[in-house]
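FORM 7B - TANDEM STRUCTURE REPORT

SECTION 1: FIRST PROTEIN
SEQUENCE AND TOKENS:
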Amino acid sequence: MDVPASYWIETLQLEPHIEGGAYKSTYRSSFKLAMDSLPEGFSGERHICSSIYFLLQKGEFSAFHRLRSDEIWHFYFGDALVIYEICADGKVIEHKLGSNPNKGESFQCTIKAGNWLAAKVQSPGNYCLAGCTVSPGFDFADFELAKRSYLIQKFPNHKALIETLTIS
């Protein structure tokens, strides 16, 4: 079934995301965690869990960013998505989110809280519809969009990747 990205954008009412791509919040737990029960660095209570739809098209990317929470990415439809994770020790992990395990793709992957991540559609694909579940739940207070100069200074051996997947 050949379904264009525009179908999903319209049907799911996706909107532009600050990191790139398009998204829609789909769930936010009614249960909350008190600030004193969260790890250091959280500025207030958080929902236990939240989730979104996320769509990237060919030529777009999700710019390097990090959260204070773990992120579980889910594949839904389209072409494979490559998610780049830079760990605190500088190791880069390439997660392939997709539906073909024979090509090293998985339906899910997890990005550890505090690690930098960016994503793009695996070439020569057209788009990927994915989802992301965050726990503790997403709050923009816990979101940091990477500054290119900072990441290059911290991880100089990944300069080319960082230059390709940062906004500024």
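SECTION 2: SECOND PROTEIN
SEQUENCE AND TOKENS:
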Amino acid sequence: MEDKKIQTKVDEVMQSIDHVQRASPRPFLFTRLEARMLNDRNIWSRLSSFAGRPVIAFSCICLVLLLNAIVILFSGSAWNGTSQQVTELTTADEYSQVSYNIYDFENAKQ
């Protein structure tokens, strides 16, 4: 009796998928999607497609490297004696500090 109920349930489930058909999109769906994507080109998409070109990207990288080289070359000539003296004084002050070590302790019993 129990096996017969299970078998009828299995048969019902198997028969329910007999008339299933493949889903299909509405007519002209892909044409409408393509038209929408072509009309949806805003300023950011146009700018990114322009900047993504290899020639533009390579020229921007070269420009940044050139500007860095110019800054490095001209910053060396701006180094004068007063800034060097300040650096020397700062270094001397750093070494004149008293530092205590944990092994140097006073005898507290005296």
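SECTION 3: OBSERVATIONS ON SECOND PROTEIN
The chain has a mean pLDDT of 78.
Residues 47-76 form one domain.

SECTION 4: SIGNATURE
Preparer initials: ____
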